Amino acid sequence: MKSLQKTGYIVKCKASLFFVFGTLLLFIASCTTDSVVQNSKFTDEYNADFLLTYYNHICKTAKTTQGFFPPQTARAYGYIGIAGYEAVVHGIEGATSLQNQLNGFDSYQLPEVISGQKYNWAIASNAATARIMKYMFDKNLTAANRIKIDSIETATHVALSENEDAAIVTRSQEYGYQVAEVVYAYSKTDGGHESYLDPFQQPFSIPNDPYCWVPTGAVTNPLSPKWGKNRPFLISNIAKTQPAGHMPFSIDPSSEFYKEAMVVYNTVKNNTAEQIEIAKYWADDPFATCTPAGHTFNILAQILKEERATLAKSSMAFAKMCLAENDAFISCWKGKYDYVLLRPVTYIKRHIDPSFNTVIGTPPFPAYTSGHSCEIGAGSRILTSLFTDGSGDYSFTDYSQLQYGFFARSYSNFDEMAEECASSRLYGGIHYPIDNSKGLQVGRAIGDNINKELEWPRFVN
Amino acid sequence: MNKYKFIYLLIIIHLASCKEQVDYDKLITEFAEIQCRAIVLKDKRFQMADHLRSIEIDSIDKKKEIDSLKIAISEIKNTSLVLADSIKVKLDDILTNKLSGHDEQKEFTDRLAVYIKANGCSSPQAE
Predict the structure, then answer these.
(1) ipTM, 2 dp
(2) Using the 8-state DSSP alphabet, how is residue B98 labeled?
(3) Structurally, what CATH architecture does the domain formed by B24-119 represent?
(4) A306 close to B (CB below 8 A)
(5) Residues A85 and A316: beta-carbon distance below 8 Å
(6) In sequence order, what are the beta bridge partners of A396?
(7) Does A295 lie at the interface with B, CB-CB under 8 angstroms?
């Protein structure tokens, strides 16, 4: 009996040893990702100069590539930001990949870091950003822009490879390229793949009802009417942000709708010189700028540079902004084509004053809600999360429009900046007040979602 | 000897703490010329856009005029983009290398605006 008990004891003891040993093995195995991080320099040990150079060139590329209207440009930024973040995420302490966080991204397998091997995360970021950027503009990318991207990539790679082990250089670069390939594969299924080749997405018909959008200029087709069906990065960014309907359409002078149009009419008639300047400043001007999203990215890049943000913070900052801007345009465009509301210029000419003219051009798509307001609402929330304690208080001067012949404008709060941008559409005579207020609401909700629903690392810088 | 060391040390500290005064006038005069060209081009772009809209709204059979205007717009766009690159490079240099901190940068852009508004943009270099 004793012998049996002893045997049983030994068996139990062995089992227990196996259990303890197995658990230890599992524990060690589960730590391999961390060991990769610990072996390599952290992402925040690199500066972000080269990344800022890329974002500067994205703006230039968007300006000079056929088919890149605001939604298409925001989308290009969107995937470039994801690739840049995923290329460095394993070098950021406490950071989580977006792989299992973004809508549909988990169907794509990002490359794994090799356990125990060192990586240079800046080299990976350089490779990923260059490759995804070429993919996003792909068929319409001019030779000059392609050469410029290649030259940025080569110069950065050479500089970063100096005094770095050759195997680490190769491994890191290859890793970056693989990340870009997977992000590009993910992008192909969102509904906007190569949309720059057919930005007007015809055929599309809009009803002939009196409240419905009609062309306001030479461009008779509405821009990207199916954009609202694109896959967002967060489902909630569409499902939970759609605005309630606008006030009922009416041509009765006592109606709310007529009063909204009268606000536009009176504003344009009584605009101050400052308001006209603001309307043009935020118009992201005919022919020469990289769209409203590009303006917001220019502001972000400027602040990151001023703050001397590391590669880690910059990569996260761009990723947040990229996700927010992409989804802001999807959500906004869904609303625009759900409501297909006519522009103020059409209504005012028909029912108030046939000689009415806007201050700036009315873009070729429906009014409700304002694209600028959506995108700046989202952008302002991202900027607030990145650089403030949540108050939005931050003194800065936006230098990004000097290159287009404007004077710099200064702000002390990101919300104040967003409000001015939204109001600029009223001063311009191209949006009803409700387009702007609801647009800001939509954008802010999206920015908040990106900040709160996704896991982001916390940074000092 | 120790006294001399101390004096040297003081001189070194003094020199290190000395900061070259920013010559705003020089910076602004240099930058205003190129900025004025951008302002003139911007005004032209908006004027052309207005003109294009008025033609399009008033008439649908002015195709020739619209086409020639679109060519002019394309040219002005290209000129604007090239100029924008030059301005960006020059501005980056000023903001990064000649000025330090938000206060000096804001001072520069504020003074630039005052200077250009006071002097206008009708210099011979303006396009």
Answers:
(1) 0.82
(2) I
(3) Up-down Bundle (1.20)
(4) yes
(5) yes
(6) A411
(7) no
